[in-house]
Every structure is written in C-alpha cells, then in structure tokens.
Specification:
Elements: H1 16-19, H2 28-36, H3 38-47, H4 52-61, H5 73-84, H6 87-101, H7 105-129, H8 136-143, H9 146-178, E1 188-189, E2 199-200, H10 202-215, H11 219-245, H12 260-271, H13 278-282, H14 291-320, H15 331-338, H16 344-376, H17 395-411, H18 414-441, H19 449-475, H20 481-500, H21 517-530, H22 535-572
Helix pairs in contact: 3-22, 5-11, 5-14, 5-16, 6-12, 6-14, 7-12, 7-14, 7-18, 7-21, 8-9, 8-18, 9-10, 9-16, 9-17, 9-18, 9-22, 10-16, 10-17, 11-14, 11-16, 15-16, 16-17, 18-19, 18-21, 18-22, 19-20, 19-21
Protein name: Cationic amino acid transporter C-terminal domain-containing protein
Membrane topology: Multi-pass membrane protein
Family: Belongs to the amino acid-polyamine-organocation (APC) superfamily. Cationic amino acid transporter (CAT) (TC 2.A.3.3) family.
C-alpha cells in the first residue's frame, strides 16, 4: 500500500488510487478479505489512540504541501467574531423570542453562552497543545481513539454543512428584506415536495459558490476580508443597539417569562446554533504563527465579545416590540419599520448580510480543514487531504464541503437545520470535554491501573448523572426531587475525580482552569441542552449516525486500518524517526 502525498491538481489524471490507494481496495478479492476481517479490525481501531507527535508531523505530512503560517491572534479573534455572529442572532432570536421563550430570550443566550465558553476553554487547551487542522477530530483521535473520532468527525462535517446551509438561507431572507420583498419571493415553490423541503433557494447556492471561490484562493486574504467585514458588522450592531434603545418600551418586558423555565432551556438548545463557529478557529491552529499565545487570546476574546453583544441585542429587540409581534424571518428590520424608522431596516439588513457573509467564509475555511485532516487518516478518501502548493489551501476539501452545503441549502428549511445542528454540536462539545479529562488524568504506560479504573468510573458516573438529569427534563414529569438526586450525584462524581485520581499530565503551554470542575460542567450543560431538543431532530440525528457507521464498517475502517499498519511498519523499519519523516509505506 502507498500512502499518497501527491500535490493536488497535479499533471496526472484523477484515478482510483487518489481515492482508495489502500491494499484493502486493490481488488474485489482483497476487499472481500478485508470485510471478513471486520471484527478484528474494529476491535483494533476501538482501542487505537494516536499521539500528539503523530498528528503534528506524520499525519500532517500526508497533505504534501504545508499550510502557510500567516495568522496572528488578531486574525483569530476576528475569525471568531466573523464565524459566530450571523444567522443565529439575526434570525433565530426572533423565532425563539416569539414562539418559545419571550423576553427571557436574553437568559437563554446567557445559558448557551456559558456552555459555549466552557467548550471554548476545552478547545483552547487542545488547540495549543496539538495545533493541527483537524480540530476536535484530532483531539478525540489522540484521547478517545479512532472509532470515537470518526463518529465525531461525521457529525462535525454534518454540523458545518448544516450551519452553512442555514446561514445561506438566512442570507436570502435578509436580502429580500433589503429589496422590500418577502423571503419566499426569491425562492421556488416545489409543491410536490414535503413542506419542510419545498422552498428551493437558488440565491443561497450562488452565495455559497462565491464564498467557495474566495476561500480557496488564500487563508490570509480570507482573514483580511473577514476582519474588514467584521469590523463594519460590529459597527452596525452598535447602531442597532443605540438606535433600538431610543425606541425602547419597558412595558414589553413585563411578561418576561411567558413560557416558564422550560421555554428558557428549550430556546437555549436552539440558540446554541448562534455560537457555532468558534470551533472553526481551532482548525486554523496549523496556520497560526504562535499558537500558545494567539489561540487563547483569539478564542476566549471572541467568545466573550460575542456573548455580550448577543445579550444586549436580545434585550434591545424585546424592548422595541412585544414578543408576540416579532417577525420570525427578519426581526430587527421589521422592528425598526414598525417603530417608524423604516430607513433603519436597510442598515440592519445590510449589516446582517455582511455578518452572514463572514460566517459563511469562516465556515468554508474551517470545514475544509476538518475534512483535510480526516482525509489524512484515510477515513475519508486521501484526495481530499491534498493542499495546493501555490495557494497553501485545501482546494479539494473546500469544494467538496461547499458542494454538499449548497445541496442542503437549496432544499431545507431553517428550523429543521438549526435543531439538527444543535444536536451534532452539543454532542461533539461533550466529547471534547470528556477527552480533556482523559488527557489530564491518563497517560498510557504511566497511569496506574487502579487510577485508570477510578478515572473510568468517575467519567461514567459524570456522564450517567448528566444523561439522567437531561432525560428527566426531556420527559417533563415535574417535581424537583429527581433533580436534587441527579445533580448531587454529578457533584459527588466530579468531587471523587478531583480528590481520588491524581492528574497524570500538566498542560505544557496553556491549560483549562479548575479541572475537573469546568470540563465536568461542560459535559453536564451540553447534555442538559440536548434534553431540550425535540424528538424528531433526534430521529434525524440517529439516521445520520447509522449512515456514518455503515460507511465506517464498509470503507473508513479498512482504509484507516491499512494506513495505520503501513505507517507502523515503516516505524518498525526505522524509516520514521522522531515524527519527522513523511510516511511512504511499502506495499502490504
């Protein structure tokens, strides 16, 4: 087997070897032998964990050309702002305030923001220690193994496709507002399709195509374009706040929590969509000049600014209009028009379009880096891992991801997208928090068996108590006694981990404070928000996860197994030393 490191867009035509170079796919007979070994191979991959050095050197080398290290904390901070502030605040705020939570939507944003900030801390430690394009996929591969990393990887890719599609459809809504039209005036109604998929959106597809073209040209160029647009966008947000508060009516806040606490958490689960995007910044660690300094400042700073702006914007909207009168498609524009400031709606729509454009751009950059690193492990075809030697960008992965995003955006309603996205995102963030606990408390070959067993028991108890709390909340049975029991058990499990299990590893450069409490809290909050999402979204999530497992068992498992064994054979032969050599495995 040969692990391909060829450059993209090279002179030779694309062949099967670009997609399936592994021994298992060399012939139908070889594939049959691989399928008969599925059980043994799966057992091997379930326990296989990568190493920091492997991800940093050997796996990264499989892209051929290196990505350019051009980014600073300034770039990352504005990438973070650009990635996050978009369709969530400008569209979902109105939907949730009107239909789910009322003026208490500001509390929903606080809950979602706390959850997101806890996840930011976990991501930051990993991104500083393992600065590669794979983001959470690479982190989970190192700490939880290949199989869990793949399950997360599939949901990461779904997350990015859905978020990009949702923002592209919201882009059409605000563009229509700017031109004094209803959003559906620019969509094609296909009456023969289901209602949730019948409003076809060609404008969303065009916007995605333009963003794709820009993303493949230059990461640094994308960064400059992003922070110019983001600065203008923040200026528009400040205008919305100041101008909106001049039309404030405190009477609109009197019925502050019409749907009760359940409405707050149900809205929080959906509004978590508004914070999606910061994880894309972690995928840019490979292109950052000084990850140890730049990533913490960029990520934490961007999330703190974003949360503050979200809360103030939500309060402003609810002060301008009674929650029952808020428009679900373009809430801020319509609020200004109803308050006699019709001219302001054009500024709002213009700012929203700018914000959504930056979200799409950062999403395009982030999702292609994820796919690149996944393909480096051969869990996806290695053709997708290739980096263009001139632009230093993963052209193949960028085009592939945005093509999938365009198809989803063309058909699917925003409400379906936001709910399904929140499930995938919360699931991944929960896994990253678990991985951080494993990283701090377990080092293979050094941690005593007794400490390893106590760690496993504590993590299992933290997960079980978090699931129990979320499940009871989702069942909506009433009563506070079960919550006292489950939350007390969660506290006890976390305290046992803190008191009884010694940390096996200290962070080298930057670390999450208050371990294990903050990662454990991240697990609990993410699980709790999952319990607030509707059942239909979980069905869709289950179908997607089942499809992932089918692909893994028939393709991804065998490709990654062959690649891992080939690299191990090279290492044993002395061809890979200190993680510096590019793998070029001999035939198996």
């Amino acid at each position: 087997m040969v692990v391909s490191t060829s450059s993209p867009l090279s002179a030779h035509p694309i062949s099967k070897e670009d997609f399936f170079p592994e021994e298992s796919f060399s012939s139908w007979a070889a594939y049959g032998r691989a399928l008969r070994s599925t059980g043994a191979r799966l057992a091997d991959r379930l326990t296989a964990r990568s190493l920091d050095a492997t991800e940093l050197h050997e796996v990264r080398a499989r892209s051929g050309a290196d990505m350019k290290r051009d980014l600073t904390w300034w770039d990352l901070a504005w990438f973070g702002v650009g990635a996050v502030i978009g369709a969530g605040i400008f569209v979902l705020t109105g939907q949730q305030a009107r239909d789910a939570v009322g003026p208490a939507v500001v509390i929903s944003y606080v809950v979602s923001g706390v959850s997101a900030m806890l996840s930011v801390f976990c991501y930051t430690e990993f991104a500083v220690e393992i600065p590669v394009a794979g983001g959470s996929f690479a982190y989970l591969r190192v700490e939880l193994g290949d199989f869990m990393a793949f399950v997360a990887a599939g949901n990461i890719l779904l997350e990015y496709c859905i978020s990009g599609a949702a923002v592209a459809r919201a882009w059409t809504s605000y563009f229509a507002t700017l031109l004094n039209h209803h959003p559906n005036d620019f969509r094609i109604h296909a009456a023969s399709l289901s209602a949730d998929y019948s409003r076809l959106d060609p404008i969303a597809v065009v916007v995605i195509a333009l963003v794709c073209a820009f993303a493949v040209l230059s990461t640094k160029g994308s960064s400059r374009f992003n922070y110019v647009l983001s600065i203008v966008h923040v200026a528009v947000i400040l205008f919305i706040i100041v101008a909106g508060l001049t039309k404030a009516d405190t009477a609109n806040m009197r019925d502050f929590m019409p749907y009760g606490p359940r409405g707050i958490f149900a809205a929080s689960a959906v509004l978590f969509f508004a914070y999606v995007g910061f994880d894309a910044v972690s995928t840019m660690a490979e292109e950052t000049k000084n990850p140890a300094r730049d990533i913490p400042i960029g990520l934490v700073g961007a999330m703190a600014l974003t949360t503050a702006l979200y809360c103030v914007l939500a309060v402003t909207l609810c002060l301008m209009q009674p929650y029952g009168s808020i428009d679900p498609d373009a809430p801020f524009s319509v609020a200004f028009a109803d308050r006699g400031m019709d001219w302001a709606k054009y500024i709002v729509a213009f700012g929203a379009l700018k914000g959504m454009t930056t979200v799409l751009l950062v999403s395009a950059v982030g999702q292609s880096r994820y796919l690149t690193h996944i393909a480096r492990t051969h869990m996806m075809p290695p053709w997708l891992a290739q980096v263009h030697p001139r632009t230093g960008t993963p052209v193949n992965a960028t085009v592939a991801m945005l093509l999938a995003t365009a198809v989803i955006a063309f058909f699917t309603d925003l409400n379906i997208l936001s709910n399904l996205l929140s499930i995938s995102t919360l699931f991944i963030f929960m896994l990253v928090a678990v991985a951080l606990l494993v990283r701090r408390y377990y080092v293979s070959g050094e941690t005593a068996a007794a400490d390893r067993n106590k760690l496993a028991a504590c993590i299992a108890a933290i997960l079980a108590t978090s699931v129990a709390t979320a499940t009871y909340w989702g069942l909506n049975r009433g009563g506070w006694v079960p919550y006292v029991v489950t939350v007390s058990a969660w506290l006890a499990a976390t305290a046992c981990l803190w008191a009884l299990v010694p940390q096996a590893r200290a962070p080298k450069l930057w670390g999450v404070p208050l371990v294990p409490w903050l990662p454990s809290a991240s697990i609990a909050i993410n699980m709790f928000l999952l319990g607030s999402i509707d059942s239909k979204s979980f069905v869709r999530f289950g179908i997607w996860t089942a499809a992932l497992l089918v692909y893994y068992l028939f393709v991804g498992l065998h490709a990654s197994y062959d690649t891992a064994k080939a690299v191990a054979a090279e290492a044993n032969a002395g061809k890979v030393e200190n993680g510096d050599a590019k793998p070029s495995a001999p035939p198996m």
